[in-house]
Amino acid sequence: MIAGLLLLGLGACFLLDENPLLALFGGSEADSGFESGRSFGGEGGAGEGKGAGRGEGNAGVGESGAAGRGTGEGLAGAEDGAPPVLLVTGVVKARDGTTIANPGVFATCANEAIVHFVGGADGTFKLKGPPGTVRKLTIGAEKFAPREFSNVPEGTHLTVMLEPAVPFFGTVKDGEGTLVEQASVKLVPRGRPDLQTLTTQTSKEGTFRLTTVAPGRWDVSVSADGLAPYHEAGLVIPPPDGLERDYVLDRGLTLHGIVVAGQGKLVIGGAQVEIIDRIIKGRMTQHQSRRIGPFLSKTDGSFAIPGLLPGQTVLLVKALGYGATFHSHDLRSGDTESNRAVVNLPETTSLSGRAVDPGGQGVGGAMVVIRPKGFNRDQFSEIAPFLFGAEVYKDDAGDNWPAVRADAEGNWAIRNAPKAGNGQVQAFDPERRYAPSNSAPFDLFKGTPPLTLTMEPAVNVVGRVINDLGEPVDGALLWLASIRTLSQEDGTFTLRGVSEGEHHLTVRHAQHLQLKEPTTVGPAGIDDLEVVLERGAIVRGLVTDLRGEPIVGAWVAVRNHGNDRYGRRNQRLKSGLSGLDGRFDLGGFFAEKVNVVVAASGYRTDRRDGIAPDPRPIRFTLDDQAWELGGDIIGRVIDAGSKSPLIQVQIERCDPRRVLILDGAFIVQNQPPGTCSLEFKLPGYQRHIQYEIIVRSGEATELPDIQMHRAGRLTVTVKDWRNRAVRSTLRVRVQELAKQGNPGWSRTGVRDRKRRNVYTFSALRHGPYRIVVTGSGHKRTTRTISVTNAAARTTVKLRK
User: Is the pTM of this model over 0.70?
Assistant: First the structure.
């Protein structure tokens, strides 16, 4: 079973930004080390800036294979010829505190000018350029892992600690043992936003080697054409020797399907079929998408997609003249029939209307935003351009919305909309002459007549956002009458295109409490609206290592100490990352005492309980963590009655990114050594907890089969002493009785909406229970029942 799990690994495709420093500092064995001084700009050149002429770098010229030597200064040209300012200064050191000579620096400035140069022999560097924030700054050196910083403020001084790079190498084979050429191997850092994603490809011999890997935890993705991808979460790559890993990619499953229309009466050839889904829980983090394709259906409508893994997948199918649709399918190993999909494309129709002013005159150039029901914005953005060539409406908060543009007379039309769709449309004026119209519903299945969207004359709301100390609040999100914007650095804001009348103003900011208050907008708008946000509680701190150097990108979580108003303990209130100077500032919550957890990859986690929020910073010193390889936990989950494997089981009490579940077999990858427990859940089954699992470093622990019993369901009907239904509000609970007859945990039943005296309890373990019924005007009534089957029923009569 271990071999089978290793063959069926997980993986995903990542969209990566190419970075010159990967080549400079060694992305693989072929490009490791510095190329030369020419890599940093050649004969005095340093890079090109978009719209900024050329950047300059004082890098000098070195011989091939040797590091160039320079003055340690980089200069980015300005677009308007303005004199450059000092943007960033710093010194580069190793973990032992010694300086690193001639570090490489790569920067993208505020005007998108790009400059790269070599630092000085004393490890210092200076970057000059146009005023503004440095969007991206990457620093590395030979034999060290590069680090990357985003949005570095002008005038910042950095002390950059580089870690000695370690190698990560191995081979990639298919299920038959054949070495795979040009397989992609990608490493994504776990919990380290200052590290880069590394990628390489296998050689003709099927080998790979990455030489600029920082010691720590990484997510590994291995993929090749025609083979199922492999994903390994939280792999520890320890110093100083690195790690060797051999991967086996299975042929995977092939999804066969057919694309039809008209409820199967017409087959569609030439349809585009793509795999585009969010990886389900237990595979990868939710923000990473898998995308394979597109594949084209044949003239008979059939298609085949090879190299897939068992589990849920989502198809996006599009065909000209027939619309587009998402199709969810569950793939299973050894079940050929279940791996066939029939995708029925919906019929298309048109939706049209007119954007007008109060006098009935058309509003030319209005943007009509479509919000279909059942789709989130990301999903709809995938199909909107294909359906009707949708444009994008960008609001003042920077968000994009699929839309269609009205013509000069205000007429708009969607010609290729799915006939089964419904939702809402709303008109916006990009020039802010008119306020947004009211949202108009549509139902394409039943048919919708042309819609008239009336847009009132617009006014502006101008004001300033401050906190309760009178300080300006930068980056607050303001929402008023469908118009959104962000406050500026001085707290000022302008909401353009607002209609007059009574509205609700909503203001949100990460460091302050949310504000929602009624606002009256007059015919002339508002010129001096002052918005005051309460800071609430604040927790500030500084995260350093044992040498006192700041730790960038440490994860900080603030949790409530004790119970909140809902009776919950240790609920997360705020979270964030430490900045370039190791500091963090989290606020905007109510709590008298909090628990603070600080974690960083490569360091031991620090936790402080019962801290009173205080504006004064708290210092967190993290101890270096010895890198120790984790172990795997493997096993099967089966039905206790039929002994058949169970799919889509949810495993908790561990990091979900480490869990891989395939047709009942599971593996928890790279679990830290020690003793742990796992909890197994599946709808319709009783939960199962496996205690005292011993995990050893570098070994696989195989568990006996996890047998899950079907859960019982109990329906309780409540009647009064006259045998009449009791429809007043009651509290109906069940208490599980332990072997000694004492009550254990209790659960409140779900009241039926139609039959108001019926209460339902699901996911019950088989055994004895006590039913407790209480309510205003009724005596407390109890009854004991034994749940021995999947659907038990009983009636409780209240005492007179």
Answer: no
